[in-house]
Amino acid sequence: MQIMKQKRAIWLVCNPASGSNDDRHLQSVVRSFADAGFDLSRIIRFPEESVPDAAALDQAGIDLVAVFAGDGTINALVTGLYGWSGAVLVLAGGTMNLLFHRLHGDASSEEVVAAVAAGRARPVRPGVVRSAHGDALAGLLAGPGTSWNQVREAMRKGDVSAMADGAAEAIEESTQGPMVACIDPELGRPEGYPLLMLNPLDQKIEVRAYHSETASEYLSQGLALLRRNFREGPHDFLGRVDHLKIGGTARQRFGLSVDGEARQGGPEELFELAVCEVDLLATLPDDA
């Protein structure tokens, strides 16, 4: 059933390698656009195709682009559209979908599409974690524990040998590598942690520190990281801040993960709360 009186043209960016982005789920999302009365005029499959920039969208007369993918693809699209006059609709195409839940709560992607078509959406500019390595829209990880990202990539590719080798290296790096500590403001243990997680909220950055004492606990934590279910592992809630300087306790460089994409940090890195610089559509009410 069509909801809109006039079809609104929209583009959709997807990533077949993302957590919930198999063909069955993608086709369900595509049908939801048709049912809601949208004209889904183009589907872009990233990374085989580049995410669209503002000029391409404006030239095609598109003022709304949807993304059904994981954190990395969402980040590439949204940050690449900073300054654009249109809006981005984030759908639940990843594993944890942290940004999606900030914008839409526990609704399904199909329910969100219907709500947007019915006019029950509003443009928002949520808080992000800004660093010299880019903005994190869903979350940022820092410390030797980010070495588990390599295992996750091997798992995506089905490379069992690389997964086994990578898990052994990740456990060694997490237990033997230099820890990271919150140095401004001073939060948590001065000797640091193998992994710090920074999640953006609209007013603050939420800081959690993950730690394990034995190899089996590190393996358990690593498996949680692979599933992107970070909160399963043992951790301390350190507080909410508007900025945070993190330093390697041995004055060494440390690993970063910005919305799931690996980066190499320096001996110290500053992270600040900033505002997303393009409109995202939210279907949650203001006071949710």
Distance between the termini: 29 Å
Q: State the CATH architecture of the largest domain.
A: Sandwich
Based on secondary structure, the structural category is alpha+beta
Number of helices: 8
Q: Give Rg in angstroms.
A: 20 Å
Count of β-strands: 18
Uncertain regions spanning at least 5 consecutive residues: none
* Biggest sheet descriptor: 6 strands, mixed
Mean pLDDT: 86
Question: Mind telling me the CATH class of the largest domain?
Answer: Mainly Beta
Query: What's the CATH topology label of the largest domain?
Result: Tumour Suppressor Smad4
- Strand order of the biggest β-sheet: 2-1-3-4-18-5
**Strand-and-helix sequence, N→C?**
EHEHEHEHHEEEEHHEEEEHEEEEEE
Shape: elongated
Number of domains: 2
Helix content: 25-40%
Question: What proportion strand?
Answer: 25-35%
GO molecular function: kinase activity
Protein name: Lipid kinase
Organism: Croceibacterium atlanticum
Keywords: Kinase, Transferase
List the helices and strands and how they pair.
Blueprint lengths: L7 E7 L8 H13 L2 E8 L8 H6 L4 E6 L1 H10 L6 E6 L5 H7 L4 H9 L4 E3 L2 E5 L2 E3 L3 E3 L5 H10 L2 H17 L3 E5 L1 E2 L7 E6 L4 E6 L4 H12 L8 E7 L1 E6 L6 E4 L2 E4 L3 E8 L3 E4 L6
Parallel strand pairs: 1-2, 1-3, 3-4, 4-18
Antiparallel strand pairs: 5-18, 6-7, 6-17, 8-11, 8-15, 9-10, 9-14, 11-12, 12-13, 14-17, 15-16
Helix pairs in contact: 1-5, 6-7, 7-8
